[in-house]
Amino acid sequence: MSPAPPVPPSGGPALELLVHGVGGVTPQDMLDDPRTVRITGDEKAAVFRRTDDADADLHPERYRDRPIPEAYCWSNLTSGNGTRALWLLLLPFMVVNLAHWMRPRAKGRRTTTRLYGVLVRLVALSLTVLLTAAACEVALDLLAWQCAGSPACTRDRSWLGFLSSAQHGWWSQPGRRLSLAALVPAALVGLLWYLSNRTWSAYESQRPPTGEDASASDDSADDADEDTGEPKKHTVRPALGRPGFWYGRRLVARLRAAHTAAGFLTVAAAVAGAAARHDRGAGSTPLEICGRLLEASLVAGAVAVVWVVFRRGRSETRIDARIDRAAVRCLPGAALGLLALSMLYASWSRPGWVSGATLPGEVTFRVIALAQGALVIALAVAAWVLHRRARHARTAMSGLGGPAVAMLACALGGVMTGGVAQRVADWLDGPGTPGMDGEGAIPGPPVLLSWQASVIPVLLIALLVPAVVLGVGTWLAARRLAPLVEADYDEGHPDEVRTRRIAGTRARAALTDVAPWIVGIVSGATLLLGAGAVAGAWASGEVPGKAFGDSHDFVESAAEAAQAIGSWLIGLGFILFVTWGRRAYRDASARRTIGILWDVGTFWPRAAHPFAPPCYAERAVPDLTWRMCTWTKETGGRLVISGHSQGSVLAAAAVWQLPAATRRRVALLTYGSPLERLYGRWFPAYFGPVALSELRGQLDCWRNLWRPTDPIGGPVLVPAEGEHPEVDREALKDPVAYGRSGRYPLPEPILGHSEYQADPAFATERGELLDRIAPGIPQQARGSSA
User: Fold this and answer.
1) What is the Cα–Cα distance from 365 to 434, expressed in whole angstroms?
2) Cβ 208 vs Cβ 619: under 8 Å
3) Which pLDDT band holds residue 217 (cuts at 50, 70, 90)?
4) Which stretch of DSSP H or E encloses residue 334?
5) Which domains can be identified in the chain, with CATH numbers?
6) What are the start and end residues of every segment in region (Disordered) (predicted)?
7) What angle do CA 370, 372, 683 make, to 5 degrees?
8) Rounded distance between C-alpha atoms, residue 157 and residue 164, angstroms
9) What SS3 state is found at 541?
């Protein structure tokens, strides 16, 4: 048996736990030492120390005048593996998941807040149906139905020869072609299920160190806290401090089952619907009865999926490890069984059946577009009602940020799905133009997709106006800031070029604060133009170039140009997604850039869409919480958790999870922090002024550093109150010196968002925080005295 480690004195050592920001850095860079050693963790996320400090806990006398530095590296959770670059294709799912967390903070509106969560989950479900419908459009309609049914299309494509209607083979019947092609969208749904299940096991399974396990209580009390934001039968705690906030196994498993079933049912409806429509007009009574029974079963399955999505939200007041076995196991299996029956039913021999025109994808995409628009409008009404209850001037878009972001998610889904369909149709049609009579070998994709593509150039032209306004406004702001810059440095002989450069950096950094305005314009324009596209496709039933064929030549030419340009732009957008993903698979720098997107977008748990990229915070926050709890308990020392940029958000979330006894020995130092500027404005229910004030009230020691040149970080705007001083330090000068001097003989750079630790104020504030923490008694000392 090894001897017990020596007990440090009652004062204990001091530890600085560094947490990096977006994009990630190496532990060598964080600790400023080429020799580092991993203390705890794995290849995805770990705590590192300098090699010389590896045994620092055993020799606290060596660290009387400085803290022991540790670095928590979490970047591999988002950008470590090249295959994760393919997560870029899941961008619409990630964006709609953000909309769930953007609801305004409002107590007493239990029904409205529950409705808000349900509406976001339904929008997310519509995106899964849209993606699957697009895959069905490509595989079933364009390939199996239109191209395989047209000898002109299959003439130069030998790989489609066995499906060609001209061959009169076993596979030439339309129903059998559809059944075979259905394997493609079904495989896509299966792949999404597999990826979600795999990441669910790796990310949502990290148990926090606080809270209670689920008990056999009633379901109504269990799910009351997800959409209301307030627990029903428990003591009120800040949302991010609840034991089950970072433990979403139950909800993600439930949503994964529902979305998987929805995907399979969409494919089954495309296959069985085509065969049933033929049988109703063919006079075959047994097949007609089978078709009607199968369609009724599909409707029942769709109702069950919507009920599962509607019924339950998140459970946060405790660690709920239960799984809804009936929904998780039965629902996808039943949907897959209905898909198999649909394929068998469609494969039944129908010698007189000939594929012509197109499958009814036009109706499908029109219903999806209308449903998404209605859901977004209803979501905006719910968000407006909530915001009226708790108004705050800093809340982005007056509480309408969630609906606006949900609209952007739908638009992204439309661009990706429409881009695939349009490009495949152009490829199959060769030199012809799908949708134009006499020009193409196939009818082409649904007319609505062409109308949606046509509004993209109009949207881009409309965005030129706010872009020009922003450019002029930034130039004018830089001119107004120039005297303030010179006054800050009290320079006797100012340099006009230097002043203009600093003022311009400050003005450009302020553009972050107008992001809500830009998002609102884009979302509103997208909603209006999308409604116009649905109306145009519905009224005319033809692509824009033909719909305006009887109009003035200029109108007709403009419509054809918009259709052509929009079609290529929508296809180019999807191609860029794919090529960027392939480049990131091979290029580490590009992979790191994509990792930054996920660092910002996947901080939140998967509460709306289970196929979104996984939430890295469900691993990182428990890691940090466990480390702070165990280290302070073992050593009785003082700890300052030091977070930069996105790392400050992780640090704050981890501090919220700490037990009160541990929190008294922990200080929080944030710098370049988006806690209020981004998270507080866009996620007011979780990082708004009330939440940040609650965090300061629970934490005795918190200090925030910021620069006016930083485009991401800013003040947290938590004022002094009682014994608690103001959290924000006065703005740091950037650059630290205006011109040359004896101390700074060379020009100092404008750092903006980086290198906060190089500022002399950093070490000063860290030391003052540690001095304010009362040390505890280490566990070894308590054990020996007993």
Assistant:
1) 18
2) no
3) very low
4) helix 331-346
5) 14-74+616-785 (3.40.50.1820), 175-352 (no CATH)
6) 203-237
7) 155
8) 10
9) coil
Q: How many CB atoms lie within 10 A of CB 492?
A: 7
Q: What is the SS3 assignment for 450-489?
A: HHHHHHHHHHHHHHHHHHHHHHHHHHHHHHHHHHHHHHHH
pTM, two decimals, is 0.89
Question: 453 falls in which pLDDT band (50, 70, 90)?
Answer: confident
pLDDT band at residue 566 under the 50/70/90 scheme: confident
**Residues contacting residue 412 through CB under 8 Å, at least 6 positions apart:** 91, 92, 95
Pairing of the two strands 638-644 and 14-19: parallel
CA–CA distance, 298 with 94 (Å, rounded to integer): 28
pLDDT on residue 219: 38
Would you tell me how many other CB atoms lie within 10 Å of the CB of residue 724?
A: 16
Helix extents (H) in 510-604: 515-540, 544-547, 553-586, 588-601
Side-chain half-sphere exposure of 694, counting CA atoms within 13 A: 17
Hunting for tokens 């090529």 — which residue is that? Answer: 579
Q: What is the DSSP code string of 658-690?
A: S-HHHHTTEEEEEES--IIIIIIHH-HHHHSHH
703-741 pLDDT, tens per residue? 999 999 999 999 999 888 777 788 999 999 999 999 888
Going across the sheet that includes 68-73, the strands are: 36-41, 46-50, 68-73, 14-19, 638-644, 666-671, 702-705
